[in-house]
Amino acid sequence: MHCRLYRFLKNIAKVLLPEKWLLENETAIRKLYAFRYRGNRYHCNICENGLSRFIPLKNGDLLCPFCGSLPRNRRLWQLLQEESYLKGRVLDFSPSRCLHRKMENLSAIEYISSDFVGEFKAAKNHDITQIDEPDTSFDVVVCFHVLEHVTEDRKAMQELFRVLKPGGKALIQTPFKDGDIFEDVTIRTPLERLKYFGQEDHVRVYSVQGLKKRLEQTGFAVQVLSFAEKENPMGMKKKESILIATK
User: Fold this and answer.
1) Which residues contact 223 (CB under 8 A, 6 or more apart)?
2) What are phi and psi of 50, to 5 degrees?
C-alpha cells in the first residue's frame, strides 16, 4: 500500500511540476511526505532520521522516505566512513542524489562527481572508457552500479586503474549472479536486455568472482567484502558484496 502511494504521488509530481524545481526542492518535499514515517525502529545513516519503516520497492529494496537512499547507498556510506576512505581526491560515478549532497559538502575531500548520460546530478560528464582526467590523480574512485551498463567494460577498468594514484582504491559494485559472467553482444534491444540482464540498459550480469578476475587482469589487487545481515535496522540487503580494487 505504502509503495503504491509513493509511486502515485511521485508520478503526479512529475506531471504537475517542472523537474528542475522538483530537484531543487527535493529535500523539503521529502520531509513533508516522510513525516508519517518517523519512528525509532529503523535508522537511515545518510540523513540520520529515525523511521518506523522504510518504503518497500518492487525489487525488494527499502527506500528511505526522507532522503531517497537505497540499501546500496547506505552500505556505501557506512563503508566510506568506517574504512576512512573519505580523504584526498574522490571521483564518484553516477552518484545518488542523497550521497552527492553528503559528499559535496565534506571539507576533508576534493569531491568530483560524474554522470555521462545526465541522469544524476554531477559536476562532470566523463565517459568512463575515456576519463578526461590526468594519470594518477585520484585517491578513491566510487563505481557503484555502473560497469553493467558499459559495453567496453575492460576499457573502463583500465581507465579506473590509470586515474588512480598508486595505492588508490576503487570501490565497485554491480548486480551479481552465481556462476560465470553472462554477456552476449547479440542481445541489444531493451526488452531483450530486461529479460536476460535484468534491466533495459544493462549489457551483462557479473558474478563476484568473474568481476574480480577481470579487475585483476587489469592490474588491480582485489578484495571481496561480503555482508550478511542478521539484524537490519538500517534497511540493508541481507546479503551483499562489494569489491575493493587497489592499484
Assistant:
1) 243, 244, 246
2) -85, 145
Residue whose grid cell is 568506517: 82
Q: Please check whether residue 159 is in contact with residue 150, taking contact to mean a CB–CB distance below 8 angstroms.
A: no
N-to-C CA span, the chain: 47
Task: Summarize pLDDT for 120-160 with one digit per residue, the tens.
Answer: 677 898 999 999 999 999 999 999 999 999 999 999 999 99
- CA–CA distance, 65 with 156 (Å, rounded to integer): 33
What's the pTM?
A: 0.86
What whole-number distance in Å separates Cα of residue 81 and Cα of residue 98? 15
Counting every residue, how long is the chain?
247
Q: Which three cell numbers stand for residue 241?
A: 558484496
Bridge partners, residue 132, by sequence: none
CA distance 222 to 121: 29
Contacts of residue 47, Cβ cutoff 8 Å, sequence gap at least 6: 64, 66, 67, 69, 98
Contacts of 81 by beta carbon, 8 Å cutoff, 6+ apart: none
Q: Which amino acid would we find at residue 107?
A: S
What the block records as the C-alpha cell of 176 is 551479481
Q: Please give the grid coordinates belonging to residue 174.
A: 554491480
